[in-house]
Amino acid sequence: xxxxxxxxxxYEESLVKEKLESISFRGPDYTGIEKxxxxxxxxxxxxxxxxxxxxxxxMIHENIHxxxxxxxxxxxxxxxxxxxxGYLFKTESDTEVLLIGYKExxxxxxxxxxxxxxxxxxxxxxxxxxxxxxRLGVKPFYYYWENGQFEICSxxxxxxxxxxINEDAISMFLDCKFxxxxxxxAENVHKLPPGNFMKIDLNSKEYKIKEFWNLDxxxxxxxxYEDAKKELHDLLIDAVKIRLQSDVPIGSxxxxxxxxxxxxxxxxxxxxxxxxxxxxxxxxxxxxxSKIAEQxxxxxxxxxxxxxxxxxxxxxxxxxxxxxxxEPFADSSALxxxxxxxxxKEHVTVALSGDGGxxxxxxxxxxxxxxxxxxxxxxxxxxxxxxxxxxxxRMIGQNTxxxxxxxxxxxxNDFIENIFSRKGFLLKEKKQDYMKHYQGYKKWSxxxxxxxxxxxxxxxxxxxxxxxxxxxxMAYSVEVRSPFMDYRVxxxxxxxxxxxRYESGRQKKILREILKEYIPEEIFNQPKMGFAPPIGNWMxxxxxxEFISSLNDDFLNKVPNLNIVKFKTILNEHMTExxxxxxxxxxxxxxSKWYKEFGFR
Length: 601
Fold this sequence. Notes:
six-stranded antiparallel β-sheet, 3 domains, 27 helices, GATase_2_dom, 43% helix
């Protein structure tokens, strides 16, 4: 895991060093800067494979140069294939395999590699740059382009100087709690979408972006449940195994949930020695599932470390959150993620995680909500519109957000989209239609749950979960690897009948059946509490003064398109315990900290 940088802007080397230094946590082991023709390539290295200096970057093979962030998990197989073709290698790294693989196959190398990656390759012979981002968007890729001048980087902070704020992106953030790709907080700065590559022709000063992977139309396999369970189990074992390749200590995150328990159990069985596992707990027992994780650890025989998170810990981490999440980002579980990685780094440099399992195997609460409210959504819209009055809702005792949403949305697709976006709730007026980039979910499947899962993967997984994990881990120079985000697992899960994954309210059915081979069902079949801290309670009590002082009129008046009257109303309702508005208040609070950090006052 590293940081990459590339530009054709003629910056002094001292300025390039300053830019890289601002995100040096991504790669503290070595900083490499190389000038080639009119380009500057930069790299921050976190050494994982082949720790020798021979694997420093930028790396060169004949006429091609590379800066690469990530891991190619099947690099040994590709290396063997290239050796058979007569290529020679100077290192034991996956970087050189990627570089020589591009030399042999060009852009088709992307179809051969299995990994998480963002990289730039410069070919001096063709005077072209070839860049790509992995299929699920695990690794970040930002680029600035204006009139043929460009910068590419793993994070946006080095690209922000002298840039104007993208006011539409502020509205997107207030809707989603993140800024969805391809947009960013700055004008003329973009995210390369997952599963895409970009070619820059330095002669014509033009670039083009092309997709090399995406979700596709669901073709449900004719397979028995037992065969599916065995095939999935074998696939997960392989996905874990290839992610255990490392020349530095490796461990696993372990919560009270199914996904991390399964990943950690498989890793523990594969490993020749007891693995290290790590979990976070909260001093509020209503949110704490660390005791369940400790039960898992005892069964699998891991060396386990639990860290309890308090409101004081959260307050101390807020500056760190703004520092490393250099776009506004309001998933509050980023805070315990930061704490978890800070503890993990004391013991290991690489950690496995269970991220991605909920998307493929219907693990989130909103999948239950879709099923429970499906009968409402299927009522003709004019009737639902009448039923949505507050009076009638009170009469039937269904005054919940999801039921209101089901009654008031026109279509099933609208109901699905509202899971991930509040669609103008905090805004004066609706702005840029960012959902236009995520409409594929409507055509890939006719199944209600699969549609939601696909939008979960395309919109939320990339922009929320992956961004959270990448920044929280990189903040402490930890590499996180997620077997459930192996694209083979994603594709296999989508090919299974829905009843194998979700049946009669039983989420992750097939994963539970596999986990029973490692952990007794009565141990793991306990209520999951999630990973978000009790921010809502803290902002009413321990952190109240901090929130009130930050959310003052001076700041609120500077936020474009914010409905200030409405926000003040919900802030008062929350503080007086009339309603829970935690998520929306947290969004605006995080934005206030971002404004202060980056000087947009």
